[in-house]
Specification:
4 copies of one chain form a homotetramer. Chain A has 191 residues and is mainly α. The mean pLDDT of chain A is 91. At the C-D interface, α8, α9 and α10 of C face α8, α9 and α10 of D. Chain C binds a DNA duplex (21 and 21 nucleotides) through α3.
DNA sequence: AATGAATGAGGCTTCATTCAT
DNA sequence: CATGAATGAAGCCTCATTCAT
């Protein structure tokens, strides 16, 4: 019936499910496992969410919303583009890369349930609007820049997701450093 | 003599499953769907594969093997590093990006079934060994280059997978162009 | 409150399965047959038992428990040993031989699923502790008596199981008479 | 098609299956396991036996035949009854108890496939015909003696089968000793 | 309202036996 | 004849969701 009674419980279900989905995958995580983990009766879950699918969709949607609203806020702020870019790279992205469970779900499970292409498109457009006037080198075509943005954005997410496994020698910090440097060298600026 | 193992059947199961897995996801594709698609009796599937999981593992493993052996061949060839890089970007990567179903499975479903981190690590090391002596700018640290390789490699794959949906304005060609240019500008060379 | 666990259903599944297992054997009795016989949906079976194997294990375990607790009660009672023996032969064994389905399962199917050796050992020890001080003839060695107990106990069960088929001319009563007489003559007493 | 080509192979299939059936049970032993154990192609098995069931039936039938023919031979021999009994207890039974796999199958798996009741009946009758005139105590009724025979015969088999697990302190020798003594004391003779 | 037993379609896999080669 | 790939009915069990209590 999806009434939002206790917001604390709702968040707990969401957080716990996120961890479980990220670790074992959506289909390998049963409602009964979630129920056990949050220590609530099955019925209660269905008081907050219409279905299991609704849970993962909500995780993705709310996680995405949070990221997007941060971006929008910066974008709409009166700051200089270069300043916006700095915040994006030094604050927003690092904060995003903190939530590896979310990224993991976004990249793997969410594909089936949400139209991430649209989300990526939307976010890329926003960043593009910040970037496009900064470049000192006007020889970069729009197409090239958009491609660069998408490849690098998705690359960052995937790499971060990979880092989680601790198999690679690189770290989240390395990734952020890379983003900063590639941005600076591509745009010919210094942040 | 009894009937011989039919390699054609095996390949057909693999190809058909790849498509289905890529489109609907591993868990949303039932054995009975595969069976219907390949028009074989259920039992036959199980004479070629031990389990449903074995099918997806084989898809990933063999697909990866193909990619990796191409890379190794180039790597081992006596050509100049710059020449190798050219082949990588102009032949191997484009050919890899042709098989979007494979990439899609690799990025989403395979995570649960195979240790892709190791694969990425291995492939990145191989490319790194080609790249490391090319750069005219020795100021690029090893860490930076490895990070760059991982981010961009994964970025390419994810973007290509996204392109499949036809929602974005960019194309596979744009991605390849981007790779070429970023490589050239990063290493300060012209391929 | 949701529905309460229905002990009646549990017992019904157990009883019905016992009959079916005894008649056709464990592997020749399918879950769907049980389901049909108890007229419940499949799922219900699995809310009461973890698996088909769990059902037969429970049948054996609970049946055994019942027998064993009767024995223990007598054993612990303050009565004279000869009195205990009388109860054993005139009440407990006849009551045990009443449940031929249970005996049949115990002797045939249960071997694979439970450690009956341990059960037999345990029960024999208990009976031995009652018997050992009764005998007027101390020339019976401990080893001999234990062997006698095991052979005769298992013999009774197997014979009873055989009687079920109505092929033999002997009956359950004959078996009980035999037990009584052999006991009396072996121990040199009159019950 | 069950042609008996190579008797050696046939025996090998029978022996191997007997071991496997005894250890894991009939239904937990697949034809493919037998095939692996005897290192023959599946088809070959079906050259010697019509079906899996045919294998177990043959094991029981031939094993039983062997036992029965020994008994018949003794029975038909011109020896004195007491002499016959001696051979039965000192030779035939010990030899029977040697083949625990056979006994195990007889008691558990065979129940479903063969009419062991008839076999037990038949064998008991034969032994009874030897015994009936020996007894110095004519107070033993026919019913009593038949019951005793059945209970003790089945008890011996079951106990022997139990001994296989090495959990009990008694041994095959103890069982044989017991049989001898109980026979002697029941019939009031000395073998 | 809160609970968790009940539901049953549908999933994956096995395996004795056949029969094309 | 010898072989072992092919077959497909049937087995066991899961699990998201509902709804009686």
């Amino acid at each position: 019936m999806a009434r939002q009674r206790d917001e604390r419980k709702r968040k707990q279900i969401l957080e716990t499910s996120k961890t479980l989905f990220s670790h074992s995958g959506f289909y390998n995580t049963s409602i009964s496992q979630i129920v056990k983990a949050v220590d609530m009766p099955v019925g209660t879950i269905y008081t907050y969410f219409r279905s299991k699918e609704d849970i993962i969709k909500t995780i993705v949607e709310e996680g995405w919303q949070e990221l997007y609203s941060q971006l929008e806020e910066i974008s709409r702020s009166g700051r200089a583009d270069r300043e916006k870019l700095k915040v994006l790279i030094e604050n927003i992205i690092p904060s995003l890369l903190q939530d590896l469970d979310f990224i993991n779900i976004l990249l793997t499970e969410a594909v089936v349930f949400t139209r991430i292409e649209e989300k990526i498109e939307k976010i890329t457009d926003l960043v593009f609007s910040i970037i496009k006037n900064i470049s000192s080198q006007s020889n970069l075509s729009r197409k090239y820049m958009k491609t660069a943005l998408i490849v690098i954005f998705l690359g960052i997410l995937s790499s971060a997701s990979l880092v989680k496994t601790n198999t690679t020698e690189i770290t989240i910090e390395d990734i952020i450093t890379f983003v900063k440097e590639i941005t600076e060298s591509s745009l010919g600026i210094k942040l």
